[in-house]
Write the structure tokens for this entry.
Amino acid sequence: MRPPQIGKVKKYMFPFIDLIKKKGIKHVVTLSIADAMPFVPHYKIEKYLEKSKIIYTHIRAGYFMQNLSTTHKEVIQKEKDIFIPAGDGKISFTDARDIAEVAATILMKGTHKNRTLKITGDAAHNFYEVAEKMSSITNQPIKYSNPTGKEFKKKMLSYKFDKGMVRIMGFIYSAIKNHKSDKTYPDFKKLLKKDPITIDQYIEDYAENWL
């Protein structure tokens, strides 16, 4: 998962990669982001790992469904509102359980060496659609109020979120709002020969989190 240290790749992540190479680790699976651009730390870590000559498999994952039952759980539970500044942008929602299964399969079988996989769900949804699904499945009204970035920051700080984390979330949701996070890819189905978990199934499995 994403520790704070990933933001300081030269101080923390590069020395860690040097250490695992020294220790003889033979295969590393990295958890990256779906569209890793050169300016994000995930991309820099990918490239440094590749240069190290350790066998790698990069998993570029979509937006975790579990963010709704962890990071945003309290606000949704108390206010019945998906309070996220993402406009009507759609997201390639991805269940973290699918990511875990992909990573475990690759490490156990030793496959997909020196490759980059893009793992997402098979459909993109905006938060209006997610709110409708959550309302129907949990049998309670849950809305998506689509706040401004300023309103989002104020709300998150009132819930005692770290300023740095709020800033990162703002960046992520800005990209979604600008329709840059809606691509889906078939890699999960090709690897595991089954469909990825849907947003409906996720909501059913985690419904008690928002009651």
